[in-house]
Amino acid sequence: MNTTTSSSRSATHYGSCQLCGSLQKAPGGYLAKHGYDVAYGFFNGVCRGSHELPYEVSCDLLVSVLAGIKISIANYVEAPKPERTTPGRYEQGYNRAKLERSAQWVADERAAAQWVAGKAQHAANQQFVPFAEARIAAWVPAALIPVATVEAREQAVKGARKGIQALSKAVDAAKRALTKNIEFYRSTVESAANVEFYAKKAAFFAANPGAIYLDNAILKKFVTAGGSSVNTVPKLISQLRDFGFAEYAQTVEALNNAYLAAKAAHEAAKA
Q: What counts of helices (H) and strands (E) characterise the chain?
């Protein structure tokens, strides 16, 4: 939404629109034009609260508009959906070259659009009533907000947003580092488990020729729990220590603590 005009640039204070509630500059004590889009060099739609007193000063406009909307709601009768005499764009028999040059097709399209717009406007009116009634009930005179205060607030929000983005990147970097090491150290644990298992198995057969080896306790020490997921870190640390890789366990633990700290900082900044 575009809210900048030449007069609004010279304003010293901001105020709230009585009708839409948005914060706008108030040059000369009246709200700048707002609530519009600019397309192809033309204004498209303007909030009725433009060039009116801010909500902090008055709610008279809101009272007047609410009364008119209540009358519109009371008088509203939903019209039946208009019957088409020509196929719509996505219906069987539609032929752009022929139909869009037809006056009847244009009339059908216009009638359909007006019917949809009427229903949408009635729904919007119904939603506006509780919003307006609550604002009228809560109205008390208030001071307008200095431009410097609003600009400082906006800068603070931008700074906080950038800080959150930086923390998000830090979380991603810490997670990538942790995941990469999980994959490496998990393969280390798997290799150690296999070596210990087959060494014990070979010793058993050397002492018991022809016997059946049923002891798989070594392999039970190594059970994957989600591949390289960060959720498996506590189990991986325990496995590394079980197989005598205390230094590796410390490395993974440090990376995991860094990841958890970055995640906690990110969540705290978003709160």
A: 7, 5
Torsion angle, CA of 115/119/121/122, rounded to 10 degrees? Answer: 140
The closest alpha carbon to 75, from 114, 115, 118, belongs to 118
| 147 burial type by CB count under 10 A (0-12 exposed, 13-18 middle, 19+ buried) | middle
List, for residues 46-87, the tens digit of each pLDDT value.
Answer: 899 999 999 999 999 999 999 999 999 999 998 898 888 877
Residues in contact with 263: Cβ distance below 8 Å, sequence separation at least 6, in sequence order: 171, 174
Burial 25-41 (b: 16+ CB within 10 A, else e): bbbeebbbbbbbeeeee
Q: Is the pTM of this model over 0.70?
A: no
Angle at 47 between CA 123 and CA 122, to 5 degrees: 10
